[in-house]
Amino acid sequence: MNFVSIEFAGFLIITIILFYLFPKRFKQFQYVILILASYIFFCWNNLFYGVYLILATIVSYFGTFFIDKYKNRIKIKKFLLIASIALSVAPLLVLKYFNFINSTFSLLFSKPFNFVEFIIPVGISFYTFSIIAYIVDVYKGKVSCEKNILKLSLFISYFPKLLQGPICRMQELKDQLYEYKDINDIYFLPALKRIVIGLVKKILIADILGIFVDFVYADFKNFSGGILIITAILYSIQILMDFSGFMDIALGVSELFGINLPENFKTPYKSKSISEFWRNWHITLGTWLRDYIYIPLGGNRVSKIRIIFNILIVWLVSGLWHGAAMHYIVWGLYYFAIQSVNVILNPLYKTINKKLKLNEHEKVKAIFKIFTTFVFVTIGWVFFRSTGVKNSLSFLKRCLAFYDFTSFSNGKFDNFYISMWWMAVPLGALILISFKTYIKSFLHKIFYKTNNKTAKSILQYSSLLVICWICAGIYIYMKGLDVTQSGFIYFDF
């Protein structure tokens, strides 16, 4: 079920009503309602998806149960850890990577490749990583083993985080998922505001920019270099608005049930380095890779060569996690190369920085760092968006003619799906979101001129309703033109 759909709106309203229907003495029914709702949500398009989720829950339940039971038997405990992780990862490896591995071997040994079609549940990469984190944390004693299989089932299947994260740890949610929620203690307005911001990011910015991006990428070899650079920049904005928009909706929906999920974004395009960017983009994946791959391999506590090796493993895992294709591996190797060069040249950079007294020009230096980081990230997104390594390199090669904008005047956009004036919509929405702090302050003054609490509430809810109607109108219009992009980009991962 898609967050941006009438079905989801109806599903959410019914779930909220049922969730708050029970008094405190029946508090266990609240998390049972959430489990049922989560499975309905997950199995909406295919009932078979639920089988994977049930099997994943059973494996993690019995795996952690026996790890806890034999916690003083080191060898048995370690065997159970490996077995539990292997069984948890097996469906992901088979469903997502079997055809990729098979095609690679077929290419290497010049043998025919037979594609096997699997039913791959949306979100399998996300909930598998969450399960692995839980198993490892039980093994290390960071979190207690959950003996109630229904409670564990809710942690794994909780629908706001199921499809695209955030990748949660048990210790982050355990105290929230199972305690009783009183409707009078829930702050509905901030949650609804966050959902609306997510819809604006998705529908008014990401989806409209996506129409332009898809149009150019479909025939990029016939577009001039300047247009390709604009397209690459627009895709950088599109993927941020698409993914962070989903997160805003997911976190807002979760807040309606009194459950706060971890943040996944922190203004990533203001980062001054690639390392900082990945601390601010998809935060829960970054911390997962750090805690369960990088640090166990030795982290920064080893030799420089070993650090570079550790970085390589992290980025290979990250690339493969995003997709079973060579361009995702190259995308991972691209960031590995950048971070490895940084590890090697960082002492030299510090020396130059000190001798040239660059710290005296902090503002200029900060702007330069933000700009160069954004350029490197945008280049990385070309590998991410393209359909293959060859196309990525060809796209970047054509970008070298950055001065050429002739595609705007030679008829290349004559068959564009919508009027170019539509591009003003995401631009305006992007400006509003970028300056939301100032807009919030302005609206605060308007809303709070009156002391009438009812009037304040009506004004605020009416504003949200108007924005929702605008989003719905544009969504329906685009759907009528058959150019809407209701799916989220990260659904593919």
Number of helices: 19
> Strand pairing plus helix content: what structural class?
mainly alpha
Give the tally of β-strands. Answer: 0
User: Which percent range describes the beta-strand content?
Assistant: under 5%
CA-based gyration radius: 24 Å
Main sheet: strands, sense, barrel: none
Helix content: 55-70%
Oligomeric organization of the protein chains: single chain
Structure notes:
The chain has helices spanning 6-19, 28-42, 49-69, 74-108, 124-140, 149-157, 159-162, 170-177, 188-217, 225-255, 274-280, 283-294, 304-322, 326-355, 362-385, 389-398, 424-434, 436-447, 453-480. It has a domain at 6-185. It is mainly alpha-helical. The mean pLDDT is 85. The chain contains 19 helices and no strands.
Give a short synopsis of this structure.
With 493 residues, the protein is mainly alpha-helical. Helices cover 68% and strands 0% of the residues. It has a domain at 6-185.
Compile the SSE list and pairings.
Blueprint: H1 6-19, H2 28-42, H3 49-69, H4 74-108, H5 124-140, H6 149-157, H7 159-162, H8 170-177, H9 188-217, H10 225-255, H11 274-280, H12 283-294, H13 304-322, H14 326-355, H15 362-385, H16 389-398, H17 424-434, H18 436-447, H19 453-480
Helix pairs in contact: 1-2, 2-6, 3-4, 3-5, 3-6, 4-5, 9-10, 9-17, 9-19, 10-15, 12-13, 13-14, 14-15, 15-16
